[in-house]
């Protein structure tokens, strides 16, 4: 069979080092990245403080601020709740402000969070607006080493979830990872060959590859239990779900944009000294 | 192009007689089956159960019925609730169902089918194939399969469940959660959706999962589409709002229709 796969020479590397305690990510680790965190309006994953500790920029999308205000103290039940709330203050709260509670709004405003009211812009969803904002703020950054972590993008209303997945496609030149307690999702753009360095203490083994934007004529992988070899994938037929990682490095090469998902091992040890 | 009718009448507390409309024949009465997957039951699970003529648990879905149905009736004796809500079949690779749950249902005569030899298809796929072959209805266009526990949780499971809608595109299959429902609008038909306003809406969306749409048109939505192209990376219709109780959709691509479910739904 003649492979229709275009030979991509550019390699994109991925590693979920944001799931490791900061101490475990060495300064010389060439995969170490600069992170932003976006908190959407759903229950926060239990390891949110770990993501917060990695991030240089922390943004709450509207009601995501309620989730941090209410949710983070619950993750430290033995600590003084107000102290915790003072320690987890977002840099920015952005959105149409119809979900954030007034007392939460006031609390963070007084502690210096920048409040950006977007209510005039009804064209895009909260996640799109936050990522556009990050794109503007970080134009000076090296985007290949910059990664946006997102909590609260999955579950709840399906149309919200679809819009959040679409953000990965719309901003396909940015690294964005959607996270829940159960799994993470990222886009593997067809413009690159991909190397995924599995952090096996915190992720795996369940994984999958999905062509939700359009079919793949030819996808090839290594490192999975059921590797693909110039395989066709499309909805209505075969897509790679309930796969498993078999090696520490997984490679993916495809003619189509694919969503990669991998399960998370819980509990995730945060290694935070509070 | 043939018209396909949709109505979430299974969410209504009592089956409502369909009023004849000038512009359309009433949707044919459907026979319902229910499949329970391994996630927390939505609060209206008893309503769906009572509407269904065939109830199938996929593996750990049996744990969910055993544990959670009694919780939905906190004033009643748990064992009595379990006896009232006993599935017809439990099917799958049986690596999630608890031993005590399996024994309880075996003693009640529930058929338990071990399919661990088949690793090629998901639990939902197996259950849909079973229901399609076993449901007490000859005309499959009159069968509607309701599924709970298909959304949320591990994303690859959710996507695998959505792919079942595409693989069985000739069957009516509805995935339900506490927040919303989704079903396929196959490109082979134009679609009329009778929105059941007491129980669903107003938030809705149309999503081209698997392949883009070059042309989709709608009526009845706040932001209608008019020969509009939709794709991941471009426009998809989310956070839309139903404006009328009759929505029409026609498209060159298979679309996922989603609509929010109002809270609370009383049984």
UniProtKB/TrEMBL annotation, chain A:
Pathway: Cofactor biosynthesis; thiamine diphosphate biosynthesis; thiamine diphosphate from thiamine: step 1/1. Catalyzes the phosphorylation of thiamine to thiamine pyrophosphate (TPP). TPP is an active cofactor for enzymes involved in glycolysis and energy production. Plant leaves require high levels of TPP for photosynthesis and carbohydrate metabolism. One of its GO terms (cellular component) is cytosol. One of its GO terms (biological process) is thiamine metabolic process. It is an enzyme of class 2 (transferase). The keyword Kinase applies. It comes from Rhynchospora pubera. Its EC number is 2.7.6.2. This is Thiamine pyrophosphokinase. The keyword Kinase applies. It holds the Pfam family TPK_B1_binding. Belongs to the thiamine pyrophosphokinase family. Residues 192-258 form the Thiamin pyrophosphokinase thiamin-binding domain. Keywords: ATP-binding, Kinase, Nucleotide-binding, Transferase. InterPro entries: Thi_PPkinase, Thiamin_pyrophosphokinase_euk, Thiamin_PyroPKinase_B1-bd, TPK_B1-bd_sf, TPK_catalytic, TPK_catalytic_sf. It is found in: Cytoplasm, Cytosol.
TrEMBL record, chain B:
The keyword Transmembrane helix does not apply. Belongs to the thiamine pyrophosphokinase family. Residues 189-255 form the Thiamin pyrophosphokinase thiamin-binding domain. Keywords: ATP-binding, Cytoplasm, Kinase, Nucleotide-binding, Transferase. It is found in: Cytoplasm, Cytosol. Residues 1-24 are annotated as: Disordered. It comes from Rhynchospora pubera. GO terms for biological process: thiamine diphosphate biosynthetic process; thiamine metabolic process. Catalyzes the phosphorylation of thiamine to thiamine pyrophosphate (TPP). TPP is an active cofactor for enzymes involved in glycolysis and energy production. Plant leaves require high levels of TPP for photosynthesis and carbohydrate metabolism. InterPro entries: Thi_PPkinase, Thiamin_pyrophosphokinase_euk, Thiamin_PyroPKinase_B1-bd, TPK_B1-bd_sf, TPK_catalytic, TPK_catalytic_sf. It catalyses: thiamine + ATP = thiamine diphosphate + AMP + H(+). One of its GO terms (cellular component) is cytosol. This is Thiamine pyrophosphokinase. It comes from the Eukaryota. One of its GO terms (molecular function) is thiamine diphosphokinase activity. SUPFAM superfamilies: Thiamin pyrophosphokinase, catalytic domain, Thiamin pyrophosphokinase, substrate-binding domain.
